[in-house]
Specification:
Strand content of chain A: over 45%
Number of domains of chain B: 1
Oligomer: heterodimer
Shape of chain B: elongated
Radius of gyration of chain A: 25 Å
Number of domains of chain A: 2
Radius of gyration of chain B: 14 Å
Order of helices and strands of chain A: HHEEEEEHEHEEEEEEEEEEEE
Largest interface: A-B, 49 and 40 residues
Number of helices of chain A: 4
Number of strands of chain B: 8
Helix content of chain B: under 10%
Order of helices and strands of chain B: EEEEEEEE
CATH architecture of the largest domain in chain A: Beta Barrel
CATH superfamily of the largest domain in chain A: monomeric porin ompg
Structural class of chain B: mainly beta
Largest sheet of chain B: 4 strands, antiparallel
CATH class of the largest domain in chain A: Mainly Beta
Helix content of chain A: 10-25%
CATH topology of the largest domain in chain A: Porin
Distance between the termini of chain B: 20 Å
């Protein structure tokens, strides 16, 4: 989520994604990419569906993300594991390599954006679709009457492409039902600070930032996904910087030196977020999000629009338009490229 | 005397979180892509159903590997609907 915003704000973006996993029916002309995917068989997932590596709910997968935004440079990696049929876990690592004391606050107000952080998430998914067996049997019988030479027939939606009326009947016999998600994330990061006291003596300090996020949502068969999350962040913020004119080595020459006056201050921030995910057309999907920061009374609106398409993965990139009410209001625009859009924020 | 049973071995190769398989309405939980059930032989039909929702292009497969008389293999690639579901009747 946040990376689509953090990816590139009106700046250049560099993304390296390494999807990995296994497939069943392999084409005879396997590519190197396919070979790489199978190398992770049994351990990690087939693909990455979170280009930003920041969604609260994540699938099994391995990925590396590299952004080159001038003000929010960072590298991130993630690995996910399936803990059972319904439980998933993922671990993310991110390292900023921009200026940790840059005074410009990220438009997303992420207090941990400048920390080298470890981020652990555990997710749960409940889904229980049903098929009307009697109706399915009638459809099978009808198919076999029309195709008497077929033996050992497996009835499936995909297998009925040549019989559109039967496919529609089978589709109507399926109750897809809503799927429900829950996720819990915790993130811990370290951040370096350099500052001066009143006598201009320089100090260095390393502080620990942390956040806790709880998320839940539901995927409705015809509407799409709607989810909610609450995050609390505790982080340190650098003091204000000032340009001082000082004598250079005690001589007549003066120098301008930028120093941060005073130690970093501890802050807490809460964020409430609601998001929606839905494909609009085969080549277009949206993921609008609204966040509210109650302590500061700030609103953040984000609209990632997916329209980059890869033949294998489907929709896998687009633009993210952002607006925050902070100050007089501020707009941002980010490009993101990753892998496929998913109905859930994974 | 305990009733004689036949061991049925099912396999699934799928990475999607939105995949469910049921045998007679009971959820099949795959361990490393494999599950087994002991079923009573006889004339009755057992019903295997499965459902998947994911990105178009996702590949998956489900298989009854044993016993011989119930063997089946189904593989598919999701089309632009991003959905597939299937059903298979078998005897042991």
């Amino acid at each position: 989520m946040k990376a689509q915003r953090a990816a590139v704000l009106l700046a250049s973006l560099g993304v390296l994604l390494v999807p990995a996993g296994r497939g069943l029916a392999r084409d005879s002309n396997n590519t190197d990419a396919e070979t790489r995917k199978t190398a992770y068989s049994g351990i990690i997932g087939a693909r990455m569906v979170d280009p930003s590596l920041t969604s609260a709910v994540s699938p099994p997968g391995l990925a590396v993300l590299l952004t080159t935004d001038r003000k929010d440079r960072r590298a991130a990696a993630k690995i996910g594991l399936r803990l059972g049929d319904d439980f998933f876990a993922d671990l993310r690592f991110s390292v900023p390599f921009g200026d940790p004391q840059d005074e410009a606050e990220p438009i997303t107000l992420d207090g941990l954006a400048r920390s080298a952080a470890v981020d652990l998430g555990i997710h749960y998914l409940a889904w229980n679709p049903k098929l009307d067996v009697d109706e399915a049997k009638a459809i099978r019988d009808e198919f076999l009457v029309r195709n008497p030479r077929v033996k050992n027939f497996v009835l499936s939606l995909n297998g009925l492409k040549g019989e559109p009326d039967l496919r529609r009947r089978l589709l109507a016999a399926i109750r897809w039902r809503a799927a429900f998600f829950a996720a819990l994330r915790t993130k811990v990061g370290r951040q370096d600070f350099t500052y001066s006291d009143r006598s201009f003596r320089s100090f260095s300090a390393q502080k620990t930032n942390a956040s806790l996020e709880a998320a839940a949502g539901a995927l409705f068969p015809e509407l799409g996904y709607i989810g909610f999350s609450w995050e609390i962040q505790r982080f340190y913020e650098a003091g204000e910087a000032a340009d001082l004119i000082l004598p250079f080595q005690g001589g007549p020459v003066q120098q301008v030196k930028r120093v941060v006056m005073g130690p970093p201050a501890r802050r807490t921030r809460n964020r409430l977020q609601v998001e929606y995910r839905s494909p609009i057309l085969p080549w277009l999907a949206v993921n609008p999000r609204a966040s509210y920061f109650p302590k500061e009374n700030i609103v953040l609106l984000e609209l990632p629009v997916y329209f980059f398409r890869s033949p294998e993965e489907g929709l896998n990139g687009g633009v993210d338009i952002l607006w925050t009410s902070k100050g007089q209001g501020r707009f941002g625009l980010a490009l993101f490229i990753g892998s496929a859009f998913s109905l859930t924020p994974d | 005397m305990a009733a004689q049973t036949v061991r049925v071995v099912l396999k699934a190769k799928v990475e999607s979180r939105f995949f469910r398989a049921y045998l007679d309405d009971k959820r099949i939980r795959f361990e490393n892509g494999e599950a087994s059930r002991s079923l009573e032989p006889g004339g009755r039909d057992y019903v295997l159903t499965w459902f998947i929702r994911d990105a178009p292009g996702t590949k998956y497969g489900i298989q009854i590997a044993e016993p011989e008389q119930a063997k089946m293999t189904h593989t598919a690639t999701l089309d632009e609907s991003g959905k597939d579901a299937g059903i298979f009747w078998f005897k042991v």
